[in-house]
Amino acid sequence: MTESVTEAAIPLLELRNLGCERDERLLFSGLDVQLFPGDVVQIGGPNGAGKTTLLRALAGISTDFHGQIRYAGQALPEAAWEFAGDSLYLGHLPGIKKALTPAENLEWYKAQSGAAISIGDALAAVGLYGYEDTPCYQLSAGQLRRVALARLHLSCARIWILDEPFTAIDKLGVSQLEALIAQQSAKGGVVILTSHQDLSLPQLRMVNLQDYQSARDKTKIGLGSLSDGDAYHA
Amino acid sequence: MTESVTEAAIPLLELRNLGCERDERLLFSGLDVQLFPGDVVQIGGPNGAGKTTLLRALAGISTDFHGQIRYAGQALPEAAWEFAGDSLYLGHLPGIKKALTPAENLEWYKAQSGAAISIGDALAAVGLYGYEDTPCYQLSAGQLRRVALARLHLSCARIWILDEPFTAIDKLGVSQLEALIAQQSAKGGVVILTSHQDLSLPQLRMVNLQDYQSARDKTKIGLGSLSDGDAYHA
Amino acid sequence: MKFQFESIADFIAMNGHGPYVWASYAITFAVLIFLLVSPLLQKKAFVKQQIKQQKLAQANNSASELTE
Amino acid sequence: MRDNSPAASLLGGFIASFRRDLLIAARHKAELTNPLVFFLIAVTLIPLGVSPEKTVLALLAPGIVWVMALLATLLSLDGLFRSDYDDGSLEQMLISPQSLYFTVMAKVLVHWLVSGLPVTLLAPVLGLMLSLPIEGYLPLLASLALGTASMSLIGAVGAALTVSLRKGGLLLSLIVMPLYIPVLIFGASAVQTAVQGGAIGMQLAVLGAFLALAIVLAPIAALGALRISTNG
Amino acid sequence: MRDNSPAASLLGGFIASFRRDLLIAARHKAELTNPLVFFLIAVTLIPLGVSPEKTVLALLAPGIVWVMALLATLLSLDGLFRSDYDDGSLEQMLISPQSLYFTVMAKVLVHWLVSGLPVTLLAPVLGLMLSLPIEGYLPLLASLALGTASMSLIGAVGAALTVSLRKGGLLLSLIVMPLYIPVLIFGASAVQTAVQGGAIGMQLAVLGAFLALAIVLAPIAALGALRISTNG
Amino acid sequence: MAWQWFHRLGSPRWFYEKTTPWLPWLATLSIALIVTAAVWGLAFAPADFKQGNSYRIIYIHVPAAFLALAGYYIMAISGAVGLIWKMKLPFMVMKSAAPIGALLTFVSLVTGSIWGKPTWGTWWEWDARITSMLILFFLYLGMIALQQAFQHRDTADKASAVLALVGMVNIPIIYKSVDWWNTLHQPATIKFTSKSSIDPSMLYPLLTMVIGFYVFYALVLLLNTRVEILRRENRTQWVNDLISTTNKRA
Ligand code: HEM
Ligand SMILES: Nc1ncnc2c1ncn2[C@@H]1O[C@H](COP(=O)(O)OP(=O)(O)OP(=O)(O)O)[C@@H](O)[C@H]1O
Ligand SMILES: Nc1ncnc2c1ncn2[C@@H]1O[C@H](COP(=O)(O)OP(=O)(O)OP(=O)(O)O)[C@@H](O)[C@H]1O
Ligand SMILES: [Mg+2]
Ligand SMILES: [Mg+2]
Fold first, then answer.
1. Which residues contact C49 (CB under 8 A, 6 or more apart)?
2. Band of the pLDDT at E30, cuts 50, 70, 90?
3. Does the keyword Transmembrane apply (chain C) (predicted)?
C-alpha cells in the first residue's frame, strides 16, 4: 500500500491492525490504513468480503473488532463523542421514515449537524426539487436513496462513511455524487466508501479486503467461498 | 424503436399502448413493445421514471395500468395462469426468508417450477457453494441477492422480468449474470430488465421510458421533476 | 294535539326529566349540525386550496413562457 | 418443456407452502411459545388484579380463559403474512402458478398448529389455576379447539387486509375482534353451561358450523385482500 | 466549523426527537386511536365472556380495567423502536452526537401521550359500563395516570431488547409483563380499596415512587439495550 | 338501455352534476320534517304513563338506531358494487357513509344511555340490543381506521370494501349470537316498551322523525360524496372549470 504521507501531521482517521470476525470466522485482519484530510478510499472486495462489517465498525455501530481505530490521534472508544459529531454514516438501509416527507425526514438530521444550507436546497441538489412534501413511501427506490444522500449536503462532518452509495442511483446521479465526493475531498474531508462499480475520481485510493484475508483463505476460490473449519484464530 | 421482426410469428410478449400512473400522475403512456424469443430488453430512464411500476404491471402484481399486455397472443387477464407458469419476476425485494437457509428458501421455488437442476448446483452456480446451510440473516447484502438470483437457474420460465438484478453484486458476479442472460436469450427466452449500469450484451435492446412521457413533461428538468397539475388523463 | 305542559318552565323541567331529554336532543342536534356543516366546510376549503393552486400554476406557466 | 398437471400442482403447492411455513416456525422456536406464554401470563394477571378468592375465580374461569385465548390468537395473527410481505415472498406467492386457495390454507393451518392448538392444550392447566370445576375441562378443550380454528381463519382475512400497513398490529385487533364475538359467546357459554350441568351439544354444533363456513369463505376473502394489499 | 454547545445540543436533541415522533404519530392518525380501541373492545369482551350481571361486573371492574389498560399499553410498545430500527434511523440515532438519554425520553414521552394518556382518560367510561361504584373513578384516573407512565418507561427497555427480532410483539410481552405486575397490584388495589371506602394514599405513593425510579433508570437501561440489539 | 344508465352512474361527473338540483329539496324537506317531529314529540305528544317525559328521547334514539344499521348495509353494498363492477363512485359513497354511520351509532348509544338513567337508574346495561349496537359501533370504527390507514387510495377503497362485505355477512350472525347470549343470562332488568303498546299519538311524530332522518341521511351522504368526488377528480378539466366559475361568481 502506498501511503500519501504529505505532511507529518496526525492522520484524521487511522486503522491500526484492524481485524473483524463474524461468528468466529475471521473476515480480514492486519488492516492498517491512515487517512489524511483529502483522502478518498474505496473499500473493495467481492460479496461477503466484509466491507459492510468494516464500515459498521468504523461508524461505531458495531464494536466487534480487534485492533484500533484512531480519530485525530485518539483511540476511538475515548473520542467517540467528538467522532460522532464529525462523521456521517450511510448504510445499506437509508434511515428514512416512509411516513414522513423528505423535508421532514431531513429536519431531524439537520438539527444534529447545524449546517447552514436549507433543506430545500439540499433536496434540490440531489434532484428532488418539487418532492419536498411528497411522502416518502411514494418515492421510487432511487429517489429514496437520494433523500438519504441529501444528508451529505446538510452535514458539516469531515468524515463520510458510505456503504454502496451508488445503489439504485441513475447515471446522472452517479456523476453528481462523484463530484460531491471530490468536493468533500477538496475541502479537506475524508471519504470511505464501498462500491462494486468503477469510480472516476482522481484522488481515489483502493483498499482491497481480499489482500487482508488469511493466506489459506486465498487459495480457495475467491468468490464467496466459505472457509469453515479453518481461519479461526486460535 | 426498431422492431426485430424476424418471423411473422406471434410475439411471446407484447405491450400494446401501455400506460401507468401512480396516484393519478401519468408516468408514461403509449408504450408499444413486441418481444420475440431471444429478445433482451433493458428498460431505461432516470430514478422515478416508472421502471419498477412497469415491471410490476408486467409480472401481474399490479393491475393499475392502461392498455394491454399480451402473452403468446392472448390478453393477460385471460392467460394469467399460463403466464404465471412461464414467467419469473425478481423485484427490488429478494423474496428470501432470512430465517431459512438458502437451500430451504429455494426449495419452495423449485417445487413450483419443477426444474431438473439440483438446488446445490444452482447455489454453486451463483457462487454460494458452501453456504447451503448458513441461515440467510448471516449473509452479506450481495450474497442475499445471489440467493434470489439462484432462482434463475432453477426455473424453466421463458420470460424473465428482473428489476435491477445487478444491485449489490460484485464485478465477477455481474459478468456471470450477463452470461446467464445471454444464454437464456440463446435458448429462446425473453429477458426484460432494468439497470442503471451499461451492460455488455450484444442482443440488448433499450427502451427508454422518458421517450414515453407526455410532451409537456419533457420540457421540464428531466431528473426527478414532478409534473403536477398536468399530464392527467381527463 | 295540544301543548302538554302548563308553562315554558314546566316544559323545560319536564317533571325532572328535563336534563336527560334536553341533553339527548342537544347532543343529537349537535351531531346532525356537524354532519351537515362539515361537508360544506370541506368543500369551501377545497375550493380555496384549488384556486390557490390554479393561481400558482398560472404564475408558473407565464414564468416558463418568459424563459423559453 | 413444463409439466404442470393441475392436480399435482394443487396439492404440491399446498404441501410445499405447508412445509416451508412449518420450517420457518420451527426455526423461530422462541416465537412458537409466544402465544402460549402470553395466554399464561394474561390469565395469571387476573387473580392479581381482581381477587385471589376461589369462588370468584371459579365463576370467572370459563369467560376469562376464553377471552384470553381469543386475545392470544389475535396477537399472533399479525405475523401471518407480514414477513412474507416484507421480504417480497408474498408477491412471489401471488404470481406463482399454484392454487392460492391452498397456499393460504396452508399458512392458516400452520398458524393454528402454532398458536391455537398449543393454547387449547394449555387451557386446562389454566382452568385448574382458576379453580374451574371438573365438568368444565372437556368442553373447554372441545370449544377451544373448534373456536381457535375459526379464529385463525377469520383472522387471516384481517391479517391480509392490514399486511401492507406498518404497525398493523392493533388495527388488526380492531378489525377482527367484532368478528370474533359470536365465537366467544358460544365458546364461553359451552364451558359455563357444562359447569352448571347443562347439555352443550348445541353450542358445539354452532361452533362447528362457524368453522365450516370459515373454511369455505375465509381463504377466498383473505386471498382477495392479499391481492388488494399488494397492488398499491 | 461546528458549534455544539453541550446544553443546546441536549435540549435541541430532545426537542427535535420529540417533534419528529409526534409528527410521525400525527401522520398515522388511525394508529393514534388504536390502543384506545383495543382497550375499549377488550373490556367489552368481558361481559360477553363472563356474565352481563351488574353485581359480578362491579366486582370485576377495577381489576379488569387495570389488566386491560396494561395489555393495551403493552401491545402498543412494539412500535416504539421497531420502525426506527427497520429503516436504519436507529443506527443513525445511536451514532449521533446528542444525548441519547433525552432522545429515548422523548420517544417514551410521545408513546405515553399517544397510548397511556388516552387510555387513562377513557377508563372512567369503561368503569361506567362495568358498573364501577362512584367512589372508584378518581382513584382509577390517578392510579392509571401514574401507572401507565411507569409502564411506558419500563416497556421501553423491553422494546429496546426485542427490537432486532422479527415478530417481537409477543416476546416483548413475555419480558415486560412480569415487570408490570407490581404496578398492576398497587394500581388495581388503589381502586378496590377506594371502592370499599379505604384510604389509598399508600398505593398512590408507591406508584409515584415507581414512576420516579423508572424515569431515572429506564431510559439508561433502554439505551444500553438498544446498543446491544443493534450491535449484531 | 338500463346498462347505459348504470354505467353513467359510475361516472362521478355525471353524478355530481345530476345531483346538484336535488340538494335544496332534500335540505328543505329534511329540516322541515325533523323540526316538525322534534317540536311535536317534545311538546305535543302525550307523556308516557310509565316513563313520563323521559320517553321523548325515543324520537331521536330510534331513528338514529335505524339509520345506523341501514347505513352499514348502504356502505357495504356500495363497496360490493365498486368491487364487482370496478366503478369509482360507489367507493366514494362507501367512504362517505362510514363516518356518518359511526356518528349515528354514537348518537343512538349516547341517547339510549342517557335514557337509561331515569328509566333503569343506570347508564349502561348489557342488554342484547345495546350490546349489538356497541359491536356495530366497533365495526364502523374498524372501517374508518382501515380506510385511514392506507396511503394509497385505491387500496384503501378496495380493502375497506372487503371489510365491509365481511362485516355485512357477520352482522346477522353477531345479532343472533348476542340475542341468544342475552336470553341465556335472562337479565332481570326492564324490557323496552313493546312496539304494539305505543299509542298513535306517540307513533306519528316518531314516523315523521324516522322519515326525516332518512332524508337527512341521504342529504348528508350526498354532500359528503360530492366533496369526495371533487377531491378525487381535482385534476380534471370539469372540476377546474367548476372552480373557476365559482371563483368568478364569488
Ligand atoms: C345505550 C343504550 C341503548 C342502545 C344502544 C339502544 C339501542 C336501540 C336500538 C338499536 C333500537 C332499534 C331497535 C330496532 O330497530 O328494532 C332501539 C329501539 C328502542 N329503544 Fe333503545 N337503546 C338503548 C337504551 C334504551 C333505553 C334506556 C330505552 C328506554 C327505556 C330504550 C328504548 C327503546 C325503544 C322504546 C325503542 C323502540 C322500540 C322498538 O322499536 O322495539 N332504549 N334501541
Ligand atoms: N406507492 C406509490 N404511490 C404513489 N406514487 C408512487 C408509489 N411508488 C412510486 N411512486 C411514484 O412513481 C414514480 C415511479 O416509481 P418507480 O418505482 O416505478 O420508479 P423507477 O423507475 O423504478 O425508479 P428507480 O430507478 O428509482 O427504481 C415515482 O415518481 C414515484 O414517486
Ligand atoms: N449477522 C451476521 N452474522 C454472522 N455472519 C454474518 C452476519 N452478517 C454478515 N455475515 C458474514 O460476514 C461476511 C461479511 O459480510 P459483509 O456484509 O460485511 O460483506 P460485504 O463485503 O459488505 O458484502 P456485500 O458486497 O455483499 O455487501 C459474510 O460472509 C457474511 O456471511
Ligand atoms: Mg455490504
Ligand atoms: Mg425501481
1. none
2. low
3. yes
Helix, strand or coil for residue B73?
Answer: coil
B133-190 pLDDT per residue, tens: 888 888 999 999 999 999 999 988 999 999 999 999 999 999 999 999 999 999 999 9
Instruction: Give the CA angle between residues F212, F218, F222 to the nearest 5°.
Output: 145
Tell me whether residue D1 is in a domain: no
B116 and B31 share a domain? no
Contact F237 B229 (CB under 8 A): no
Give the range of the structural domain holding residue E79, as residue numbers without chain letter: 6-231
The distance from CA A172 to its chain's CA centroid, rounded to whole angstroms, is 21
Cα-based distances in Å from A100 to A96, E14, E152:
8, 19, 24
Q: Would the CB atoms of E131 and F182 count as touching at under 8 Å?
A: no
Mind telling me how many Å the CA of C61 is from chain F's nearest CA? 16
Tens-place pLDDT, residues D132-167: 998 889 999 999 999 999 999 999 999 999 988 866
Assigned domain for E70 exists:
yes
**Looking at the structure, do residues B128 and B140 belong to the same domain, yes or no?**
yes
CA distance D3 to chain E (A): 37
Instruction: Tell me the C-alpha distance between E107 and D19, whole Å.
Output: 40
Contact B37, B189 (CB under 8 A): yes
Q: Which residue bears the cell 416527507? A: A101
What average pLDDT does the structure give for chain D? Answer: 86
Return residues with CB closer than 5 A to ligand 4 (ion).
A 52; B 140-141
DSSP secondary structure, chain F, as one string = -HHHHHHHHT-HHHHHHHHTTHHHHHHHHHHHHHHHHHHIIIIISPPBTTTBGGGGGHHHHHHHHHHHHHHHHHHHHHHHHHHHHT-SHHHHHHHHHHHHHHHHHHHHHHHHHHHHHHHHSSS----HHHHHHHHHHHHHHHHHHHHHH-SSHHHHHHHHHHHHHHHHHHHHHHHHHHHHHHHHH---SPPPPPGGG--HHHHHHHHHHHHHHHHHHHHHHHHHHHHHHHHHTTTSHHHHHHHHHHHHH-
Within a domain: residue E38?
A: yes
Q: Which of A110, A131, A155 is the last residue of a domain?
A: A155
> Do B15 and B117 fall into the same domain?
no
Give the residue from A155, A189, A207 where a domain finishes: A155
Q: Do B84 and B180 reside in the same domain of the chain?
A: yes
Looking at the structure of chain E, the number of domains it has is: 1
In a domain, D140, yes or no: yes
Same structural domain, B16 and B75:
yes
How crowded is residue F241: how many other Cβ atoms within 10 Å of its Cβ?
10
**What residue has cell string 455544539?**
E4
Q: Ligand 1, residues F129, F139, F213: which to mutate, most atoms within 8 A of Cβ?
A: F129
Q: Are A231 and A25 in contact (CB under 8 A)?
A: yes
Residue A196 belongs to what domain range?
2-90+157-233
Q: No. of H helices and E strands in chain B?
A: 7, 9
**Cβ contact C1:F39 at 8 Å:** no
Same domain, B176 and B222: yes
* F:66-95 residues touching chain B, CB 8 A cutoff: none
Q: How far apart are CA C43 and CA C38, in angstroms?
A: 9
Burial class of E5 by CB neighbour count within 10 A (0 to 12, 13 to 18, 19+): exposed
Atom of ligand 1 nearest to the CA of F115: 27
- ipTM > 0.90? no
Q: How far is B21 from chain A (nearest CA, A)?
A: 12
Task: Provide the 8-state DSSP code for D135.
Answer: G
Q: Going by DSSP bridges, is the β-strand pair B190-194/B40-44 parallel, antiparallel, or unpaired?
A: parallel
Q: How far apart are CA A205 and CA A3, in angstroms?
A: 9
Query: Domain containing A25 — which CATH number?
Result: 3.40.50.300
Domain count, chain A: 2
What DSSP state is assigned to residue B115? -
Residues of chain B neighbouring F153 (CB-CB closer than 8 A): 23
